[in-house]
Amino acid sequence: xFTGIVQCxxxxxxxxxxxxxxxxxxxxxxxxxxQRLTTGASIAINGVCLTVVSFDSESxxxxxxxxxxxxSNLAQLTLGSFVNFERAAKWGDEIGGHLLSGHIxxxxxxxxxxxxxxxxxxxVSIAPEWHKYVLEKGYIAVDGISLTVGKLTERGFWLHIIPxxxxxxxxxxxxxxxxxxxxxxxxxxxxxxxxxxxLMNTKNV
Length: 205
Prior knowledge:
Lumazine-binding repeats lie at residues 1-98, 99-195. GO terms for molecular function: riboflavin synthase activity. InterPro entries: ATP_synth_asu-like_sf, Lumazine-bd, Lumazine-bd_dom, Riboflavin_synthase-like_b-brl. With 205 residues, the chain is α+β, with helices and mostly antiparallel strands. It folds into 2 domains: 8-87, Elongation Factor Tu (Ef-tu), domain 3 (Beta Barrel), CATH 2.40.30.20; 106-194, Elongation Factor Tu (Ef-tu), domain 3 (Beta Barrel). It is 17% helix and 41% strand.
């Protein structure tokens, strides 16, 4: 599990593509982010839960299957790209964001960016079948970042980003038309699906 509190932006140092699998290697800005790491551990990269296959004192590598590349924006990474990096939560850790599985349901698209002094707003569009799970002032994870939904729009929603989030994550470098990984809040999805099912059953009585 993850909390959506990104620890740092890591740089892509290698991305090798082979038949049916790719190996991604990233370098965090400080070796402390790799302390007590083990093979088989889980790390969220842009919100995608990946399994550590190898590591050294400076970098960590993951194997990505085609399903992961098709569902997320990781396929768009190139050498030198930066990604959001979060180690898996441990028992007793503070949950500063909200609980995340690291399983991406869909991608959104950055539609607008509005920037002024100490304020940075992003409008993200989302596929219609997922829009119903996005609630104003509810939680959503965008590229692994736990965020509160601002105003809803017909095609998606606005996010209001504080300077500290811009400093620690890759959001500030997202241009218009770029894709972002979205993980819907599990509790919100469960409530919406349950209500829809109850209403459907009532109609059929």
